[in-house]
Amino acid sequence: MPAFRLIAAAALILAMAGCASLSGGGSGPGAPQPLKPIDAERFYSGRWLEVGRLPMDITEGCVAAATAYALRDDGKVDVRDTCHVDTPEGRERAISGVGTFVDSGTNAKLRVRYLWLIVWEYWVLDRAEDYSWFISSDPSFDKLFIYTREIPTPEQLDALVRRAAELGYDTDRLEFPEPLAN
Question: Which residues pair with 83 in a beta bridge?
Answer without folding.
Answer: 93
